[in-house]
Amino acid sequence: MFQEKEDLLLKKRIQELADLCWQRDVKTYTGFLTLREQTIFHSVSKLLPPVPVVLSGGFKEAERKIVCFLPSYEDKSTPLPIQTLRVEPANLRFSQPLNHRDYLGAVMNLGIERSCIGDILIKDSGCFIFCLDKISSFLCEELRMVRHTSVICRMTDETADIAPGRVTVSGSVASPRLDSVIAMVFSLSRSQAQPYIENEHVFVDGKLTVSPGVQLKGGEIISVRGLGKFCYTGSGKETRKGRLYVYAEKYC
Questions:
Q1: How far apart are the first and last CA of the chain?
Q2: What's the CATH code, domain 166-251?
């Protein structure tokens, strides 16, 4: 019941933002949406006013994304209200290993709403944080400690190191069905993979997918809540027994 109410509120908010953009010809945007919330946007997108819209999380492989409605005088190449922050230990010698939860917890302790923060990518000794532009200066000033490690937070235009790492995985399947490919990537049986799909934990290109038999074509980004994310890159030759070799790049 609570979730249904939250979904209705999000639909209403999306409609209000699209209407405001259409009526006043101004840029409007949501906070960062989860994959489930992006699915809600897709479900109502055809009912919205005919304004240009962009979904972005600040980099190509982002999971959390904002929905930005554009005025008539801007196109889809216009800069979006997303800022990239680089967070690094102030002194590597006295730093400790930090993970996603550590960085997110430090940000939340500053009183920041979760919807203002997008993906957090761990890189080398620090991380990249994607956030709404309106809170970027505040974070740069106030984010000084993550667990017991002193850190420096700064805005950055770096792009080369932002993409998450990938590991290539491959195996044979009877067909490029969604459940079969998920099972191959995460070393599961098909019967173990299917509940993730049926329980609404699987998103294909940002859209909730509940059918195990969906045939993958190649290029899809697949997120499985509780397991991880990968890009299905396609299939190769058949084995002697008629099975199909398939390939994927698993994010790490």
A1: 35
A2: 3.10.290.10
Q: Give the domain ranges of the chain.
A: 82-155, 166-251
Q: How many CA atoms lie within 13 A of 82 on its CB side?
A: 27
pTM of the shown model: 0.84
Residue given tokens 């940000």 in the structure block: 107
Cβ burial 28-54 (10 Å sphere, 16+ → b, else e)? bbbbbbebbbbbbbeeeeeebeebebb
DSSP-derived 3-state class of residue 199: coil
Q: Is the pLDDT of residue 160 over 70?
A: no
Q: Which of the 8 DSSP states describes residue 33?
A: B
Q: What is the pLDDT of residue 123?
A: 86
**Cα distances (Å, whole numbers) of residue 93 to 124, 129, 143, 149, 160:** 14, 23, 19, 10, 25
Domain 82-155, CATH number (from 3.40.1170.60, 3.40.190.170, 3.40.190.10, 3.30.70.330)? 3.30.70.330
pLDDT digits (tens, 9 = 90+) for 104-158: 999 999 999 999 999 999 988 899 999 999 999 999 999 999 999 999 999 998 7
Q: What are the counts of helices (DSSP H) followed by strands (DSSP E) for the chain?
A: 6, 14
CA 73 from centroid of its chain's CA atoms: 28
pLDDT tens digits along 215-229: 999 999 999 999 999
pLDDT band at 159 (very low <50, low <70, confident <90, very high): low
